[in-house]
Design goal:
Structural class: mainly alpha
Distance between the termini: 35 Å
Number of domains: 1
Strand order of the largest sheet: 1-2
Shape: globular
Number of helices: 16
């Protein structure tokens, strides 16, 4: 029987922060294999329904790649920071028009100023009001997700790319070269429909999954929701253990594949199901899109304590 704790010892944290070389490679390979299979089935079928179904799956796997890229931004993929960033760029972020240093620079501010006026996630939501307003019904959430399939979140995608500023300007050129090689190679092979499929998925279904996962993390709280999802909910909304977001924010050095074990030994907060969370959004007190729920000065004092 695993002994429950309310605090994590330094030794436990060191053990849980150990990195596996093979796990990220296997997970990334599986995501790309599914993307490749969807592209193959779309191309040989020449069926509009298959293309649509493939866009739903590819967007889901683009989202999964972004989740693993998020891990890379915390240096939790590989022990070598150089290889961590190289792998993250080539296989995770560059295909999504982003870079690991750009995302890291943006995301670190989220961890530092979470749920305050300087949290970039809240700044983004306030600029896109009122779609993040609370209370909200499940029907309205579903309607926004459907809008995303038709490009409603293109502006959000552009904002993410714009504000994820890498350490060096040459990184922008590297991203452009990466996509130029992809486009030229597929054009020469006569696979132009797959080029369209990739980029259309990126600005539609990828952003839909991105939106839905975001609702699971900090919406309606001054902290982080400690959620428990079913296997289907995890695969659709929060892949690669992203639904252990409470644990991630508390111990960001722990790789995603060790978060389940971390939850087993730490018992400090009750979990909430997806159904319970969405039900709470319906009856919560009004909160405007991007409204800070934590005082910035208090956050700074807590950080320096």
């Amino acid at each position: 029987m695993t002994t429950k704790k309310t605090r994590l010892s330094k030794v436990d944290l060191q053990i849980l922060s150990r990195k596996s070389i093979t796990r990220p490679i296997l997970d990334v390979s599986l995501d790309w294999a599914i993307i490749g299979l969807c592209m193959y089935m779309s191309y040989v079928s020449e069926n509009i329904f298959i293309y649509f179904l493939s866009a739903l799956i590819i967007g889901n796997k683009q989202h999964a790649l972004a989740i693993l890229g998020h891990e890379g931004s915390h240096f939790t993929l590989f022990t070598s920071k150089r290889w961590n960033d190289l792998f993250s760029n080539i296989f995770l972020f560059f295909p999504l028009c982003l870079s690991v240093t750009g995302y890291r620079n943006l995301h670190s501010q989220h961890h530092r100023y979470m749920n305050t006026s300087q949290d970039p996630e809240l700044i983004h939501r306030s600029s896109r009001a009122p779609q993040w307003d609370l209370p909200i019904t499940l029907r309205k959430l579903a309607r926004l997700a459907v809008y995303d399939i038709f490009g409603y979140s293109l502006v959000d995608f552009i904002m993410i790319v714009k504000f994820s500023k890498p350490d060096h300007k040459r990184t922008y050129l590297e991203i452009i070269i990466f996509h130029a090689i992809f486009i030229i190679a597929f054009l020469l092979l006569g696979l132009w429909p797959l080029i369209v499929l990739w980029y259309v998925s990126l600005i539609t279904t990828f952003m839909m999954y991105f939106r839905l996962r975001t609702w699971l993390e900090h919406q309606g709280t001054d902290g982080t929701h400690k959620t428990h999802l079913s296997y289907i909910e995890r695969a659709l909304l929060s892949p690669h253990n992203a639904w252990y977001h409470y644990e991630h924010h508390t111990w960001p050095s722990v790789p995603y594949y060790n978060l389940p074990h971390l939850r087993k030994i730490i018992d400090d907060e009750p979990t909430i199901s997806l159904k319970e969370l969405f039900a709470s959004f319906r009856f919560i007190q009004p909160i405007k899109s991007g409204q800070p729920l934590k005082n910035l000065q208090l956050k700074k004092e807590t950080t320096h304590a």
